[in-house]
Design a protein that fits this description.
Structural class: alpha+beta
Number of helices: 17
Number of domains: 2
Strand content: 15-25%
Distance between the termini: 89 Å
Oligomer: single chain
Number of strands: 16
Radius of gyration: 33 Å
Largest sheet: 5 strands, antiparallel
């Protein structure tokens, strides 16, 4: 028997892809998905994970040493994190922080699919809250569909107005809380409602109010399907060892209605009774039984629905469960530590985290930079000594104005000129200072001699702090 040609093989593979995609459910917005809510383990986990976002609303009110614990003070270019002040000069740590979370997202996706989408994404969480409010006011999914189709009367108008008012209130609190991280929570309450806040504050709150109302209240799963870039790139992060919500096709097929009077020997169908509860609870409206799809956000609500049905009909749980494709197909499951990408991701995470911790631990209240004059590199004075010119820049990272004393040391006797008086350094500002260093020609040991500059000061609480920076003194060739 002849081998299939490459052209036929490619065509057959393409036909398989088309056949698979034919079973995918991608809601294009033609209908509103009213997902059913069922209790269960994964629903509880989902709510617990979503509660992390309480930090977003309550965080601005946390105090630390009499000040807001976390405040991104953009106008003053200062970022306060639990007593540590980070200035724009230290923003290299932000790059490492972004790298850390980007790689963390990638490694979690590679191991367990779109866990972030299902449990932590703000779009998913806010939509879940909005639909919960909708259910409390309008009833179960059939009742909500019936209400949507009903003619507008006083009852429908009252329910709809109440729902949208609550949605807008949540949107406003979202925008208000976001701005509080940058403006300050208590000053925002003081200025916002009397008209004393900046126009940018009102614009930001309005933008977040409208955006939250539109994305979580109206677009819902459409954001996941069409707007979110992460939904598009997840395919390159998954492999056959990734653990995702999976339908056990071998156990569930062929599907058939359940009969209470049928014995296990008489039952020829698989465990799936085609109740469609897994579809009814899905917030994106997909059928997990058709395989892993773009719309699956790994929320595992279908697991709760299926397990509930299995309990009722006396069948084992796990027809839909977290499993890898290799496991479902009966292939050997590769151990986690034998997967190369896990080691690569872990190494990058460790490097980024190490850099962040080093940066935070090395932050000082003052920072010193030394710029050596390049033209001319040195000057020969009338008494024969050699003089170099330096520009010192003192960055005051503390919350108070400081008086900084400048000193210098070297392996040879030096004379520091221009630093007799302490330098006043304003809080959050870079203060320049020009100094000169003189060395007798006879004391020079070569064309280049190391010089260490020191900047010391005392805080209001009596704590002495200081920093130093090494530079060089240049002279003529011997």
């Amino acid at each position: 028997m002849s081998e299939p040609t490459p052209a036929r093989s490619a065509a057959a593979a393409l036909d398989d892809l088309y056949a698979e995609a034919h079973h995918w459910e991608v809601n294009t917005g033609g209908e509103t998905i009213h997902a059913k809510r069922m209790p269960g383990k994964w629903r509880r986990i989902k709510w617990l994970a979503a509660s992390v976002w309480l930090i977003f609303f309550l965080g601005p009110y946390l105090r630390w040493n009499g000040h807001q614990a976390v405040l991104f003070d953009i106008p003053n270019r200062q970022y306060h994190l639990f007593g540590v002040t980070v200035l724009p000069q230290d923003f290299w740590m932000l790059s490492l922080l972004l790298l850390f979370f980007a790689i963390l997202l990638a490694v979690v996706t590679a191991l367990a699919g779109r866990v972030y989408c299902g449990y932590f994404c703000f779009q998913t969480v806010w939509t879940d809250v909005f639909t919960w409010i909708e259910e409390r006011l309008e009833g179960s999914p059939p009742q909500r569909r019936k209400l949507d189709q009903a003619a507008l009367d006083a009852r429908k108008l009252r329910i709809k107005l109440t729902k949208h008012a609550v949605w807008l209130l949540i949107g406003f609190l979202t925008g208000f809380s976001f701005v509080a991280w940058f403006y300050g929570a208590w000053p925002l309450w003081r200025d916002f409602f009397v008209g004393n806040a900046n126009i940018a504050v009102y614009a930001a709150v309005a933008l977040f109010t409208g955006g939250t109302y539109l994305l979580a209240g109206w677009l819902r799963e459409q954001v996941c399907f069409w707007l979110c870039p992460y939904a598009r790139i997840q395919g390159v992060m998954l492999d056959k060892a990734t653990i995702v919500p999976t339908y056990d096709f071998a156990r569930g097929e062929p599907r058939g209605r359940f009969r209470k009077d049928a014995t296990s020997e008489q039952r020829s169908a698989g465990d799936c009774v085609d109740c469609n509860q897994c579809v009814a609870v899905c917030p994106t409206g997909i059928d997990i039984r058709n395989g892993q799809q773009e719309g699956c956000i790994t929320c595992a609500l279908c697991l709760d629905a299926c397990d509930t049905v299995m309990d009722k009909i006396g069948r084992p749980r796990g027809l839909i469960r977290y499993a890898s494709l290799d496991e479902v197909e009966g292939k050997p499951v590769k151990p986690l530590l034998l997967r190369p990408r896990v080691w690569v991701y872990t190494a990058i995470l460790a490097l980024a985290l190490t850099g962040i911790l080093y940066g935070l631990s090395s932050l000082a209240a003052i920072e010193l930079k030394v710029l050596h004059e390049r033209a001319p590199l040195f000057v020969r004075l009338s008494d024969g000594s050699i003089q170099n010119k330096y520009t010192l820049k003192i960055l005051n990272k503390s919350k108070q104005d400081l008086s900084v004393t400048i000193g210098a040391d070297s392996s040879v006797p030096i004379d520091l000129v221009g630093a007799d008086e302490p330098l006043p350094a304003a809080s959050g500002e870079v203060t320049p200072m020009i100094v000169f260093v003189k060395v007798k020609r006879s004391d020079l040991e070569g064309e280049r001699v190391p010089v260490t500059f020191r900047a010391t000061t005392e805080l209001d609480d009596g704590t002495e702090i200081g920093t130093e920076r090494e530079s060089a003194f240049f002279g003529p060739a011997r």
